[in-house]
Design goal:
Elements lengths: L2 H35 L5 H24 L6 E2 L1 H14 L2 E5 L5 E2 H16 L5 E8 L2 E7 L7 H5 L15 H12 L5 E4 L3 E5 L1
Parallel strand pairs: 2-4
Antiparallel strand pairs: 1-3, 4-5, 5-7, 6-7
Helix pairs in contact: 1-2, 2-3, 2-4, 4-6
């Protein structure tokens, strides 16, 4: 992929997320109004509300991971809220120990790395995000991992022997986006741990 292709992917990601976040927000507001007037109660309402909440959380996360990114900082509170919503929507627990605002383009790389880790942990797990100077380490650990060797072995180059599926697009975007920022991705795996550094 070239820088032009990466930019096109970012523009498409931004457009899709932008167009979807408004109607999902409207549905959320509508559900809150229904709850306030007491017209709907019970498990059906909980199911709808939970599903809309999960969809909204994913779209906000995807907007950072796949959308256009600048050096404009994202604050700890905003990142923490995004990660909390993702945790509620899935089986992944994320430890984000940073206290300062981080440039959005670096958060984008972290989120893409989180998605790579998540793909290796179908039964859930824990991911720790650490920063030392300009260097990042994203480490996922779980009792049971499903590591696809081709993806992890070639994450550094972004050149894969097998055709990627839509669920694996983060493995292609991470090294290309990192390269466009002058960074190089390194990945290591064991039977219980995956780590991505850049």
């Amino acid at each position: 992929m070239s820088d032009t292709t990466v930019n096109l992917a970012e523009l498409i990601g931004s457009r899709i997320c932008h167009d979807l976040i408004s109607p999902i927000g409207a549905i959320t507001n509508g559900l809150e109004l229904l709850e306030m007037v007491g017209s709907i109660h019970g498990p059906e309402m909980e199911l709808i509300s939970g599903s809309v909440g999960s969809a909204g959380a994913r779209i906000r996360f995807f907007r950072v991971a796949f959308g256009s990114a600048s050096a404009h900082p994202l604050g700890r509170a905003e990142v923490s809220e995004l990660l909390r919503d993702i945790e509620r929507a899935g089986r992944l627990r994320v430890n984000w120990h940073l206290t300062e605002a981080i440039p959005r383009n670096q958060v984008k790389l972290v989120f893409l790395a989180l998605m790579c880790c998540e793909s290796a942990m179908p039964f859930g797990g824990e991911v720790t995000v650490e920063q030392a100077g300009e260097d990042w380490a994203i480490t996922g650990s779980a009792d049971k991992l499903n590591v696809e060797a081709d993806l992890w072995k070639n994450l550094t180059t972004g050149q894969f022997a097998n055709k990627l599926t839509p669920a694996q697009v983060q493995f292609l975007l991470l090294p290309e986006t990192a390269a466009s920022m002058g960074r190089r991705v390194v990945a290591e795996t064991t039977s219980t741990r995956v780590e991505i550094r850049f």
